[in-house]
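Notes from the 1:1 (GR / supervisor)

We went over the backlog. Supervisor wanted to see one worked example end to end before approving the batch request, so GR pasted a single chain during the call. The sequence is below; no edits were made to it. Supervisor asked that the structure be written out right there so they could see what the output format looks like.
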Amino acid sequence: MLVISLALATVLVVMGCVSPAQEHLSRGNEHLEQGRYDEAIAEYTEAVEADPDCVEAYNNRGLAHHNKSEFDRAVADFDKVIELEPEYAKAYYHRGNAHSEKGQLDRALADYDRAIELDPQLAVAYTNRGHAYMLKWDLDKAIADCDKAIELDPQLATAYNNRGHAYHNKGEFDKAIADYSTAIELDPQFAKAYFNRAYAYHKKGGNISKAASDLERCIQISTDAGLTKAAQQLLERL
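Structure output shown during the call:
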């Protein structure tokens, strides 16, 4: 078991809405940034009722729904953003993320393609298109997209983690370990990268102590119950 990650970025678009929608929008953004998703959704809904063309409110409500794993509602909001602003690259990127979470990989790929066409500098779109290719087991395309993401944003830890996953699945464990190590260097709280590096050490063989150390660190910092359980189970098998 390896863990790959969508590079989720909360992109609060700034396009402006008419008053009083702007007041609800501002409050919604505050709630979203603090992780109060229900409150954010309520404020964004008030905003679009006051201004049905408030692109930012639809976009950010979609993000809040995504963060609550309400992917159908997220898609509906990003559909509206695209209807109002068909050249807005990040709306396709966000909708692609929701499709990916639903397992609709072809739709996700189409959205990432469009996002990249509109904004070729959008590193996270390459990372997440690579994620979708990974799930379709097209490992070379996944690596190529992660390469491009890293070229555009060398600090994007998720791109290194996901490229490491692709190398792991190709049996290139040293390259995988190197990428996981870079991801951890960039983000020392990246629990999934610790788990993945431990698994690569385990599969390569001869690195039980390093694998155990990474799993212990993963368990210590993980906020994902499923990941914590997987790390505990792998640690017991070493």
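Supervisor's comment: Residues 1-6, 8-14 have pLDDT under 50 and may be disordered.
Batch request approved.
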